[in-house]
Amino acid sequence: MDAAPSAGPAPSADASVRTRVTIPLRFADGYEATAEAVTFHGLADGKEHVALVLGDPTAGPAPLVRLHSECLTGDVFGSARCDCGPQLREAVERIAATGGVLLYLRQEGRGIGLYNKLDAYALQDTGLDTYEANTALGLPEDGRDYTAAAQMLTALGLGELDLLTNNPDKAGQLRDLGIAVRFVRRTGVFATDSNVRYLHAKAQHTHHTITLPEPAALAALAG
Fold it and tell me: Among 73, 111, 74, 100, which Cα is nearest to 89's?
């Protein structure tokens, strides 16, 4: 885990809590948890992001928080082309155990949308990696902006937190937006023969803290 430098300026606009409602969660493997779903007024991008409060965020020195970008294919349909579904499942259990919040952000395909993501998949099937495919479509490699996430955390009174992520950009953006990221806690690595090229691209191109098998083992996994 990594310690944090001091936070930057606060988010430029305020958001406020709109609704709080309790939702019982049950995953395909039988794991269950109770979440408080929170919606918001005034988010900068106008999207319907939601926070899931799990456990008691005040129980420890700092709540555990994950910024999880929506992935219909992985989160809902169990696609093995990415690691999103297993990361979501892991995050809910880890956050519920210590107390914290999962922000479910409407940022399908790293911000390019569902149809564009599927177009990028088609290009990946020709040999491009996940970032090259986005670029070939004239789209950003990663179009995600976490201003709304910082607004949500501020509205929930969470100015300091531990962040559950392998993506250094998430911690960097939050710190720039005035959120004090105390420590970064790594997520698990969920490699399969269908997503190992994708994970390798994330580790090499955007410096995700993912420990993968050695190249020979990668080649074997990829077939």
Answer: 74
- Distance between CA 18 and CA 39 in Å, rounded? 5
Check if the beta carbon of residue 51 is closer than 8 Å to that of residue 152. Answer: yes
pLDDT tens-digit profile of 119-168?
Answer: 999 999 999 988 899 999 999 888 899 999 999 999 999 989 999 998 88
Q: Which residues pair with residue 13 across a beta bridge?
A: none
3-class SS of residue 83? coil
Pairing of strands 64-69, 100-105: parallel
C-alpha–C-alpha distance, residues 51 and 54, integer Å: 9
Q: Per 3-state DSSP, what percentage of the chain is helix, strand, and coil (rounded to 5)?
A: 35, 25, 40
Residues 18-31 pLDDT 10s: 999 999 999 999 99
Q: Which one-letter DSSP state was computed for residue 173? A: H
Active site residues: 142, 144
d(CA 41, CA 1): 33
With H, G, I as helix, E, B as strand and everything else as coil, classify residue 194: coil
**Any idea which residue has 């709304």 for tokens?**
148
